[in-house]
Amino acid sequence: MSTLFVNTINTASGTDITIPTGKKLVVADEGGVIVPGTVIQVKSGVKRDTTAHTGATYSDIGLSATITPKQSNSHIMIIGSIAATSSQTSSATIRLLRDSTQILPDNPTSPGSRNIGMYDVYTPSNAYAIQSLSFNFVDEGRSAGTSAITYKFQVKSHGGGLTVINRSSTDTDASNYIRSTSHIQIMEIAQ
Predict the structure, then answer these.
(1) Could you tell me the residue ranges of all domains in the chain?
(2) What is the CA radius of gyration of the chain?
(3) Domain spanning 39-189 has what CATH number?
């Protein structure tokens, strides 16, 4: 077998370069073929256990994933699904961080002390009814480079209430619990 060294492949005529039927182009490394707009790699994290939070400052919920970009200019797409509930008399805010920088919600001071939309967990009439908070977000604001990045979720409770991740009840009978699982997937998108 011989090795061909080239920096650019071009057509002798026309616009297509064809690999014949029955032949394969094999790339040994993940991310070895870079096509703008396509996924280079995928990483994920899952949280199956239940945790409870009562603090008025943000704390980790135990759901994160780390990715080391193959290309310095890639965008990172984050897909998240969090099962959460808060006590009837209170609410909670869930946020997403890139390492130690908050990236969602993107306006952390509005409106006042709480955030709105899918990041706000609030149960007005039925205490501990579980909610699924889901979203897609493309992180275009990261610094260029190929250093490892960790994306993680944090929660804080408002009004001294209780926030529960992955379970919808405080019933002492475990057979009555409605349980769920929270997920995070992060994808490197070539540019």
Answers:
(1) 39-189
(2) 22
(3) 2.60.120.1340
79, 40 contact by CB (below 8 A): no
* Residue 70 Ramachandran class (φ > 0 left, ψ -120 to 50 alpha, else beta): alpha
Alpha carbon 188 to chain centroid, angstroms: 12
CB 143 within 8 A of CB 116: no
Q: Which residues contact 82 (CB under 8 A, 6 or more apart)?
A: 61, 63, 94, 132, 133, 134, 153, 165, 182
- pLDDT, tens only, 49-92: 888 888 888 899 999 999 999 999 999 999 999 888 776 566 77
CB 50 within 8 A of CB 163: no
Name the phi and psi angles at 175, rounded to 5. Answer: -70, -15
Residue with tokens 């040994």: 28
